[in-house]
Amino acid sequence: MTEQEKLQKYWGTxxxxxxxxxxxxxxxxNEDAFYLDPQEGDxxxxxxxxxxxxxxxxxxxxxxxxxxxxxSLPKEFKLYAFQYCILEGIGYGDIQDLMSTDEIxxxxxxxxxxxxxxxxGIFLSEAEEEVMLILEKNIKNSGKKATEDDxxxxxxxxxxxxxxxxxxxxxxxxxx
Length: 176
Fold this sequence. Notes:
Layout: H1 3-14, H2 20-29, H3 42-54, H4 59-66, H5 75-87, H6 90-93, H7 101-105, H8 110-119, H9 128-142, H10 148-169, H11 171-175
């Protein structure tokens, strides 16, 4: 798995966590997630040092804290590190604005896409590129970003939904 894929995976999980217990469980089971900054762990080390400094730890207390195994770190630090490295971290900064496939799809109206395709004389079987361009434009207008894979997946879903919508709204089906 690439670094980008790891960032997306961990961010996808982390952004939905609400309770402290969920964040602590994430910390306990996803150590790798805290080492995905560009300097591969500098940010986590900075979180540790910052945590110790904010609590006015002595040099010995800081060293003792540094020597603790991952699972033995205090809950307060796990929450602190979650905030410091994941929610506010450099490594996750770019990924936080990425939209999910469902968020991309929510930017468009099937009715409007159908109208645009009809106005341009494009058949649904030839619409993939046009739908993708519509989605890209809407993503850009929203000020967010999407991966190429999510954009492609969203395009496929929109076309599938458009087919279903056209079936449901076809004049022959409406008359029945």
